[in-house]
Amino acid sequence: MKNRSVDAVIGPPCPEAATMMAHLSTTYSVPFIGWGFVSSADFSNANKFPYATTISASSISLGYSILRLIELFEWDNLSILYTTNEVKYCDDIVDEVEGALSDVRVYNADVVYKKKIDKSRTNPFDEALNEVRQRSRSQFQERLGNDYYIGKH
Fold first, then answer.
1. Is the dihedral of CA 63, 69, 71, 73 positive or negative?
2. pLDDT (tens digit, 9 = 90+) per residue, 96-145?
3. CB distance 52 to 11 below 8 Å
4. Is the pTM of this model over 0.90?
5. Which of 46, 58, 68, 149 is the 20 to 30 A CA-CA neighbour of 103?
6. DSSP assignment letter at 80
């Protein structure tokens, strides 16, 4: 998170991964919004996780909430990274979220990169984050210079 200049993290919906992300958000002072099956009382402990919050929403509501958030910050390009399992739980969620994100009546944002992470690869997250950095931040970097990223002041 530190080396990639992450602005915020929305997800993951699973308790184990969300707990890890809450710890990382505290370590790197990056906002984290957990959703899905993240009902542990630990997430409401502001002393333990001051940058974490959770929401309970349908996938489509989550998509529209994300769309309003990126509208608020005037972000035009976004990337979607996700993993899958045997029941393809995340695949369905991603499809519904992406449907909301494509509603130009609300805000015209472009999903410039969508990647299903192949966890069997050696460094799948590093590969995906390098692609995100190149695609999602390229226009912003051109305006500010290569050494400056959103969230890095």
1. negative
2. 888 898 888 988 888 888 888 887 777 877 888 888 877 765 444 444 44
3. no
4. no
5. 149
6. E
